[in-house]
Amino acid sequence: MSEAKKFNFIGQRTIRPDGHDKVTGKANYAADLSLPGMIWGKILRSPHAHAKILKLDTSRAEAMSGVMSVATFDDLPSVSNEAIQSGEGAIDSLDLGRNVLARDKVLYHGHAIAAIAAKTVAIAEKALELIDVEYEVLTPVLDLHAAMKADAPLLHEDMFTQGYPEQPEKPSNIAARHELKMGDVEAGFAEADVIVERDFVTPTVHQGYIEPHACTVSYNTEGQSMVWCSTQGHFDVRASTAKLLAMPLGNLKVIASEIGGGFGGKTTVYLEPIALILSRKSGRPVKMMMDRDEVFRASGPASAARLTVKVGGKKDGTITAMQTSIAYEAGAFKGSPAMIGGMTAFTPYNCPNVYCETFDVVVNKPKVAAYRAPGAPQAEFGAEMAVSELAEKLGIDPVDLRLQNAAKEGTQTVYGPKLKAVGLVECLEAAKNSPHYKTELKEGEGRGIASGFWFNIGGQSSVTINMNPDGTGTIVEGSPDIGGSRASMQMMASEELGIPLNDLKPIIGDTESIPYNQSTGGSRTTFATGMAVIEAAQDVVHQLKERAASLWNVTPDQVEWRDGSAINTAGEGQMTCAEICAKCEKTGGQISGTGNVNARGAGPSFAVHVCDTKVDMETGKVDVIRYTAIQDAGKAIHPSYVEGQFQGGAAQGIGWALNEEYVYNDDGVMENAGFLDYRIPLASDLPMIDTIIVEVPNNFHPYGVRGVGESGIIPPLAAVGYSVGDAIGANVSELPCSPPRVLKLIQEKG
User: Fold this and answer.
1) Are 563 and 496 in contact (CB under 8 A)?
2) Residue 98 to residues 77, 216, 462: CA-CA distances in angstroms?
3) For residue 563, which of 611, 495, 642 has the smallest C-alpha distance?
4) Which of 444, 521, 4 is nearest to 264 (CA)?
């Protein structure tokens, strides 16, 4: 196994192959492409959060000089209830189409209604003012409490709650109900000596990627159209766009630009289908870019949630029962990660009696999108807060309570399978033995600890390794690089081939140059695409051995591959990779290896975080003074980038816990749609985030890899929240722990 093998490249802290271009500004992002004859597209967005569209007249705009084309929902020829892949989940094309361009109703402030393509941005923006829209304004539904009432205004008259034994007679804003159960929770609570039951609230938050959505497209009526965009999955952009525009997949080529952040938020389409419509109707290439205001108002944030959590335990520390009911905001269209919340809430615990009920609820806000471990941070926030409170009431150290009840190999999960080898116990032990946890708190400081779980996924990945006559090669993969994955692919290929890292250049292929590849998401890339890289490299090695055998006139099984060279075991002789490639024309042509996998066996990842905070009792301002993130990586292919994932998840989770939230007025207008007022953490807001990499190999990967991109954002909500409560001596039940909210808790306690 990987822990016993000495690697030549894996585990090193190498320079990322795309690093130079990015730090020097040479890398091309979504807004950087310009094409001859290109025109500009802009979108008219709704000023109302909920309204019927009574009239939509674009004739005055179309008549304006410089306007080249106009797009509305009527230009989407193929929308239905057929499910299509969208990032880590699926969405039906009717909902996707109605989110891209409104039909009949607008369902959130900023909902796209129509689009203009013109010779300049200024002309396009002026033309938007000439579009005549008549509305019947309706009452918006802006939070879960209001949306779930029986008499709430309905977003969709045809929505009946799924998940009950019989379909309800009346429509509602509850799209679906899910239920997961194991054992007998009532019996479990009857065994408990102490029960903690509390309500929790988490806000709507945004992924906060720095690069706005942008694309440049060119429609070709006779052949292949092109889309250049910022995306985590260009094959899914192709599928979604082709479906909405009734195009064969082969008629659409999607190129993934460099991506300036995504975190799950760039796994669906907003601009691309509109831009293609405008390009088709104008006969010109079209560029579209969102501004920051549009990103906040009209792209997919993470769900707000309301939770009730109940946890029971014996005096000896045995957790006997765990129960939760969670409602998630889906935004304007169904599809929140409610089911995932139920699946992840209590998975860090080996508890025999578990019950989870979740609700997917539509509200007049933008349709939610994935955000690192979608659904899990909200669910595990409530669970971890309750477990820490249970430890306090039982008088048991919170790490010891978690260790006593930790999920481990063989633990039965509420969502189905028993766990294979996992590293939660090792993470908890690392936390307990860390310098951070051993340091005593000073007066006025608080400490919180929390666990986090994410499944990780595998899925389809495709890779081609093309060797050059000089022994160098190119790794063509289909996974957009959002966290240093090029470096990991390079390292795994070099490990298999035994040739220097710099001899292999990793590139992201477009949808025309590589077979289908699932999106970069679900913590799948290093695991699944890594397996495809290994398979492709092994294919290359097999061919190199065959070529060497033919040159030596021996059989391939008489040739070994060692440290980048073929060894003739039937006699004397050794040939390097470069020497074999140089003679390829004599042995059958150039060498190219392929790897096409549908990877199974993605190992779950557990994380444990420790957070210390200090609260200004006069203002309610919270300072995070020390933070440690611990996580099981299986095997850290590139330790620096693994640590970066830990730190990035912690930073985003801290922001979620302390400052970030969508603020709406009574009319459903977001009042803080910009980074000045929607405040993501700055460097000055954070301490140095310490990291501890735990390595419990995943036996289903050749090198033991587990994905690490998502578990790291789950513990911070509870680690920070409990730490703040510990510092002020009051229970935190609602995030973010912003100064006004914390000050109110202090004053109520006083």
Assistant:
1) no
2) 12, 22, 32
3) 495
4) 521
Sign of torsion over alpha carbons 697, 700, 703, 706: negative
- Enumerate the H helices of 468-529 as residue ranges: 485-497
Residue 77's pLDDT band (cuts 50, 70, 90)? confident
Q: What is the mean pLDDT of residues 449-463?
A: 97
Of 57, 147, 155, 146, which is closest to residue 106 (Cα–Cα)?
155
Per-residue pLDDT band for 2 (boundaries 50, 70, 90) equals: very low
pLDDT digits over 321-356, tens only? 999 999 999 999 999 999 999 999 999 999 999 999
Is the bond leading into 736 cis (omega within 30 degrees of zero)?
yes
Q: How far apart are CA 182 and CA 355, in angstroms?
A: 6
Determine the pLDDT at residue 3. 46
Assign 363 to helix, strand or coil.
coil
The distance of Cα 598 from the centroid of its chain, to the nearest Å, equals: 20
Torsions phi, psi of 384, nearest 5?
A: -70, -35
Picking from 635, 584, 630, the residue whose alpha carbon sits closest to that of residue 606 is: 630
Examine the pLDDT at 4 and tell me if it is beyond 60. no
Q: Minimal CA–CA distance to 146: which of 363, 302, 343, 438? A: 363
Three-class SS of residue 360?
A: strand
Residue/partner pairs of 665-668 with CB below 8 Å, 24 or more apart: 666/142, 667/48, 667/49, 667/109, 667/140, 668/48, 668/49, 668/50, 668/108, 668/109, 668/140, 668/142, 668/364, 668/365
Q: How far is CA 418 from CA 7, 54, 410, 414, in A?
A: 31, 54, 5, 9
Domains and CATH numbers, the chain: 2-26+458-599 (3.30.365.10), 33-138+211-260+266-298 (3.90.1170.50), 310-416+425-449+605-749 (3.30.365.10)
**Residue 273, H or E segment:** helix 272-282
Sheet holding 559-562, edge to edge: 559-562, 565-568, 574-576
pLDDT digits (tens, 9 = 90+) for 363-385: 999 999 999 999 999 999 999 99
What stretches of 376-419 show up as alpha helix (H) in DSSP?
376-394, 398-404
